[in-house]
Write a structure and sequence with these properties.
With 102 residues, the chain is α+β, with helices and mostly antiparallel strands. It has one domain. The chain contains 1 helix and 7 strands, in the order αβββββββ. Strands 1-7-6-5-4-3-2 form a 7-stranded antiparallel beta sheet, with no helix packed on it. It is globular, with a radius of gyration of 17 Å.
Length: 102
């Protein structure tokens, strides 16, 4: 028996909610210029280490700083820094084109 249309919609919504709640803890190396943790320069999640090649955007919330960047693997990432406890999380990863080596 095929699932009912309503059941499929509920399953899809639950999947979307779970997907939005996924946060990957990171180890982040930062550049500290005129303030501490001014911007990320490299990060590691799991066994994968990435270097930041381009800082695309940054914005600040009440207790978080967000950084949209491109890493040396060609992917786009949004990293979130929770300033009160110095915790970093990856909130978005978007596959990009591999970068050419110079």
């Amino acid at each position: 028996m095929a699932p009912k249309r309503n059941d499929m919609a509920i399953e899809q919504l639950e999947y979307q909610q779970k997907k939005q709640l996924v946060r990957l803890p990171l180890k982040v190396q930062t550049y500290s210029g005129y303030k501490a943790d001014e911007r990320p320069v490299a990060f590691t999640f799991g066994e994968k280490a990435c270097k930041v090649v381009e800082l695309i955007d940054r914005w600040y919330g009440v207790d978080h700083a967000y950084f949209k960047l491109r890493a040396n693997d060609g992917n786009l990432y949004v990293l979130r820094h929770r300033m009160e406890n110095d915790q970093w999380e990856m909130v978005v990863m978007e596959a990009g084109q591999p970068l050419e080596h110079e």
